[in-house]
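quick one, 401 residues, struct below
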Amino acid sequence: MTAKTGPLSGMRVIELAHIMAGPVCGLMLADMGADVIKVEKPTGDDSRRFTPPEIEGEAAAYMMMNRNKRGISLNLKDPVAVEVLRKLLADADVVVENYRLGTMEKLGLSYEDLAAVNPRIIYCEISGFGRTGPYAERGGFDLIAQGMSGLMSITGEGPGRPPIKVAAPISDINAGILGAMGVSAAYANMLQTGQGQKVDTSLFEAAITQTYWQSAIAFATGIKPEPLGSAHPLNAPYQAFRTSDGWINVGAANQSNWLRFLDVIAAPELNEDPRFNSNANRIQNLSTLIEILNRHMAKETTATWLARMEAAQLPAGPVNDILQMHQDPQAIAREMIIDVDHATAGAVKTIGHPVKYSKTPAKTDRAAPVLGQHSREVLAEIGYTADHIEALVQSNAVVAA
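---
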């Protein structure tokens, strides 16, 4: 195995997770240098069947979520495979799992079971609603978490419209990032104390953390916030405007930027209007203000406005589609769009690590594994002989590519 760089180099993670939240956690840890070994069932992670699209028969969704990891496949219905997993976990630093409550306990692989053998282990559980509370036994999905957290009540074009889901699976992704944050904190504590611990987060909590501004408003006023389209609940104007050929976001959220904005659109008289001369007044009269500003913005192209706003040092940006974002020079310069070589699909593009480290850089140099790609390699590392590994493969306890 090639030595990894990154701030978590030397950490070994066993990922017993499928589809998204758990795999995002493993992805973040792998990017930061951890050796993440993904354990899949014999039919593979369900995201292998999230098709189309495919690249040379490999699901694009699976490849995105599981790059930078090694992969083995175990049939955990076979007690022999469970013993293989137990041996793999015996000296691991971290286990990440997102099974339903009770699954790991039935396998004899609960935190208490593993900590009795390996007291340094960090046991990260990512579930729909967390491992305590009245919803602990419920399964969870991103859509359900977005609805129950209040996110869907504040997302959309305006009051009275149907509830809208944030298009990206934000609670899944954020739960994975929170899991990686929790693992990193617990790992730092383990290095100081020698003791591991449980790390428990959920899609529900991950979605709730996205409501900071709206919850602040509700706590203070007792009034439920409503959807505002692209507008901000506390500052104005701070939203998307239609230009003559597209859309542009403008962040004129404080008084100095508001005045710059008026200079750019040649409408200084709006600051003399008592409806718009302060942020509080602009928020109170937002619909009228936006109607006026949209008339001004429709006079020029997005490119023209962007050039003028950049010259005025006014925060602004285009509303890109995903393909345009992939081609953005800043995204490319920050290595957010990168290539990796896949065993069967060849060179594939993926999203890079979002944090830069000056001394321990993250590195993405491994594509997602084909099913069982590293089974033999990983089992050899924990002491199995070639003959024993072949016997496990022949018995179907282990799947090896």
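The domain at 12-210+328-399 is CATH 3.40.50.10540 (Rossmann fold).
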